[in-house]
Structures are given as structure tokens and as C-alpha cells.
């Protein structure tokens, strides 16, 4: 028990050291990049430091698997050079038994990363996008989302409503030259509303200078059209949903993803990309454990055995291969080529099985 605690403590300290080193390095690089990126906005050093501090957590979180494999390599190389691996084996500990405490520590690190770091990274990423847009566009400027304007879709009692606007404010909660087209299933469009301005309030869009057309059988929509100085259209959209819909799933906290996915599907959007990301985040602890096993499989050998540099290089290359395989499976899952669960869980499970095979082969022949 004492030996397991010792190895677990050594591994946790190594992970923290590698994590801190990468954080500082990426922070300094990103601060220089922010100064270059916003040179036209003439931001100061303090503003660049704030932007870099908000953007760095996302970058470090993305390379967390590589941090774990480097920490694993560093730990077992240190144990080998100090001959502690020889002493541990002489005490009757097998390689797999020796790995139990680092794997448990990795599982706890992965659970903490998913439960706590993920929401923190999502929050800092949102704040970074807000500040970056402010520096690029300035306060009060109107944001043009695309060449054709802004497109949204929402669900409602009458059916789905497609929303188009020529432009909007940075949050997407105020639309200008907006058109609301409501569809009721296979019967086609049932209503159209055009407004000079649409402002999202609590449970409804508040329209200004609006004109409404109703499409019913045997009627003349233009003759029966009604003009309103102000009117309201019910909506289940929220400012966070609109903002998140423009970004990537990584900017949404994992605790909010299930409700957000349900809202997307209810409104008729495809939530496959968000579903794949959600499952991949749940599988992250297994991926981190696979990285530790890969690092251990190549470096749990005595320093006098030689070829240490080659084994370290093979471990790093193997880690990159698993990382690329995971990203490739993510792309296939998002495109619908393979099921969501297969895309998220097969890379870490396969990596664990292959690394265990390697470990058993190298250790026990």
C-alpha cells in the first residue's frame, strides 16, 4: 500500500509539472500571437495577457492526452535511472500490478478534467470569443455573420420557424431586416413575418415595424396581410443557445450538453456533432489511461538495457498515432460514417487493448 501511494504521488507530481510547463509555454506563445493578431486594434500588453490567459486553457485541455503520455514517460524513466524499478521487481511486484496506482490516478485526473476543467475551458473560451469580437469590431458595432446574413431555426406550437436576418448584434439577440417563415410539417409554409428589427426577450421575439402574411387555402395573403408597429412571436431560444450555435461543441460545458442537444433536435437541427463531442468527453479518462499504458510499455525497462531514446521516440509516435486515430474517428462520427458510440469509445478501448498486449509482450515475453 505504501509503495502504491508513493508511485501515485510521484506520478501526480510529474503530471502537474508537465501540465504547468506546457501552460506557461503556450501562454507566452499565445500572448505574442494575440499582440500580432490585434495589432490593428492597438491593444496593450495587459489586454493581450488577458486574451492569452483566456485562450490558453482551451489549448492545454486539447493536448491533455499528450501531457499524460509525457508524464508517464518521465515517471518510468526516472524510476529506471534510480534503479527503483529493479527494487520494485525484486520485491515481487509485476509490471501490471505496478501500474495499478498510476492508472487509478489517471482515472481520477480524467474524471476531474471532464467534470471540472471542461466547464472552465468552455467558460474561458466563450469569454475569449466575446473579448476578441469586441477588439475586432468595437463596442456597439453590428456583426455580419455571413455573406447571406444570419440564419436560425426554432421549434414552436405551429411548427418550425426559419429565421433570416441581414445582420445582427454580436450576441445574435437583436436582428435587423428579419424574416420569420413558419412551416407546419408537410403542408408547407403557414405564415411569414418581416420586421425591421427583432429583439429576443423572455420567451418571445419582440418585432418592430412588422408585416404578417398568413397562408391559408383560398385566401389572398397580400390582401389580408397585417402591419404592426410592434408584435411578439413566441420563441424557446435563449441568448446562450444562439451564441453556442455559432461556435463549436467545445465551448459548451459538458453539464449543459445533454439539454443543448435535446434543444437542437427539437428545433430540427442536427446534433450529431455535439453528440460525438459529448461521448468523446465521457471517454476521455479511458484515453488518458491508454496514453499512460503506452508510455509505460516502452519505458518500463532498466536504463542499462539501452535504446532508451528509441523507446521514448516510439512511445511519443504511438501517442500521436492514437491521438490522430481519435480525431479521425471523430470526423467519421460527425459525418455519419460510423455510429456515435463507436466513434467515441473505440479509439481508447482499442488503444488500451493494444498497449496491454505490448506491455505483456515486452515484460513477460
Could you give a quick summary of the protein structure above?
With 365 residues, this protein is of the alpha+beta class. The protein has helices spanning 2-37, 45-62, 64-81, 84-90, 95-98, 100-137, 239-246, 257-266, 272-282, 284-299, 308-334, 340-364; strands at 150-155, 160-168, 174-183, 189-200, 204-214, 226-234.
Key terms:
365 residues; alpha+beta; lipopolysaccharide transport protein A fold; six-stranded antiparallel β-sheet
Q: Topology of this protein?
A:
Layout: H1 2-37, H2 45-62, H3 64-81, H4 84-90, H5 95-98, H6 100-137, E1 150-155, E2 160-168, E3 174-183, E4 189-200, E5 204-214, E6 226-234, H7 239-246, H8 257-266, H9 272-282, H10 284-299, H11 308-334, H12 340-364
Antiparallel strand pairs: 1-2, 2-3, 3-4, 4-5, 5-6
Helix pairs in contact: 1-2, 1-3, 1-6, 2-6, 3-10, 3-11, 6-10, 9-12, 10-11, 10-12, 11-12
